[in-house]
Amino acid sequence: MTSFKCDATVLFCDIRNFTSLLEDQDPIEAVTFANDVLAVLGNEIEANGGTVDRFTGDGFLAHFGVGESEFNHAEAAIGSVLDLRERLTSINADRYRNDNLVVNTGIGVHSGEVAVGEITTGNITQVTVLGDTVNTASRVEGLTKYFSVDVLVSETTRLRLDDRFKFQKMPMKKLKGKERKVQTYWLLPTNTK
Question: Which residue has the higher pLDDT, 68 or 138?
Fold first, then answer.
């Protein structure tokens, strides 16, 4: 595969308090959890035209628009987030009925140029997205903890969306490893598809 660059939207989803959710559980429970929660949420990404790039144990990295120039990837990513919220409500209702802890997530979304390429070791070849856009999406997700919200979108992504999506502008904040402060927006829970 030849590496290439393209414009895309990257989404990071992190399961909050993952360690405490599986504390004192058999390791097989982690696999069950991954299938009951992470894989189900990943299906919502794919249903909206996105790709789950990789699972990270306590979350996943996904991208929208890689190799598709005629695709509003920012809008698809936000549509996916709305579906993730709805699916998580259903998952948590089942978990609550079964006396399990509910699952909370933090989601960060950022758009921009990414590099797409293969990383190969002796036994594994993985196609992935890399670059500052990916790093920034991860840092935006990290701000969800700071602001105690579930979904934050970068200004770059926000400017690619129409007015049917409702946001709350958050205070400017410096991202870890970045020189300048960035503007983020909370995707309000009142949004529906």
Answer: 138
Residue 135, domain member (yes or no): yes
For 30: left if phi > 0, alpha if psi spans -120 to 50, otherwise beta; the answer is alpha
Going by the DSSP 8-state scheme, the letter that residue 1 receives in this structure is: -
49 in any annotated domain: yes
Q: Are strands 105-120 and 4-15 parallel, antiparallel or unpaired?
A: antiparallel
Q: What is the pTM of this model?
A: 0.92
**CATH code: domain of residue 164:** 3.30.70.1230
Structural domains counted in the chain: 1
SS (HEC) of 47-74: HCCEEEEEECCCEEEEEECCCCCCCCHH
In a domain, 192, yes or no: no
pLDDT digits (tens, 9 = 90+) for 17-61: 877 766 777 778 778 887 888 899 999 999 999 999 999 878 999
Residues β-bridged to residue 99: none
In which domain, by residue range, is 157 found? 4-187
Q: Is 93 helix (H, G, I), strand (E, B) or coil?
A: helix
Q: Are strands 4-15 and 59-64 parallel, antiparallel or unpaired?
A: antiparallel
Q: Is residue 193 part of a domain?
A: no
